[in-house]
Amino acid sequence: MQSPAASPIRALLAPLLLVLLSLLLTGGTAARAFPLRVLIEGPKPSMMIAVSAPAQLRQDNGSAIDLAPGHWFTVTAAHTGILQLPANAYVLVGDRWYPEGMQFLRFKGGVGAINLVDSETYLRGVVPREMPASWSDHALMAQAVAARTYALTSYVRRKHGPHYDMVDSVIDQVYGGFARYNPRTGRSTILTDARTDRAILATRGQVLDYSKAQGFYRDNGIAGWVRYGQYQLPIPKGRMLSQRVSQMMATSGWNYRQILAYWYKSDVYLLSM
């Protein structure tokens, strides 16, 4: 049996294309984002936050605290509530800047910070953390659909309970927010990327059938290789996308719909929640 390196994934194109090209997008309405609640910090006794523009923390006790940029504010379990951010503003929690909104909830052990963010914005902080932004466009687009499907599954099933849908680590998906703050220099580094942003926009609202495919993926998610004529085919580990092999597919001419169909055996649908 030839090695994967000796038998490029380009070989998969030939007779399989006729089957894979039958993959269709369905849905007649505009694609919609869905709301997500991502636990990004805590619970802990307290946390320091800052804002990039004037904002207001509306507390659960009915009072409000005005926050100004350039000033730190210490959040404790006595400050539970929702921080409302103006358009294009961000909140710094820990060493990351986050968009849209932040909820502070009391948990056992202190206060937790939950980023209130729509799915398309969330993906901008996920895709470049889960797959190298330098990879091929269609590999990135396949990753965007898989990550969106994973988020949708978590949103619908409420697997973490009533307070949040996901966490920001490999337990779910790595979500890095939009920028990283360096307290030693006082400077921030942008974490989003124009290439992954394009992949997210190009697949906006597109998901797999999450009753069949939950969007799971791994760096190397294959069980091995099998002979297909003079070439090799990857053997999937269930309905799970192998990121490295998907990159091989993309560089060999597969488009993202074909890549997703191979791994998940699911159509792609346009979300219209």
TrEMBL record:
Residues 109-210 form the Sporulation stage II protein D amidase enhancer LytB N-terminal domain. InterPro entries: Bact_Sporulation_Assoc, SpoIID/LytB, SpoIID/LytB_N. One of its GO terms (biological process) is sporulation resulting in formation of a cellular spore. One of its GO terms (cellular component) is outer membrane-bounded periplasmic space. PANTHER family: AMIDASE ENHANCER (PTHR30032:SF4), N-ACETYLMURAMOYL-L-ALANINE AMIDASE-RELATED (PTHR30032). This is SpoIID/LytB domain protein.
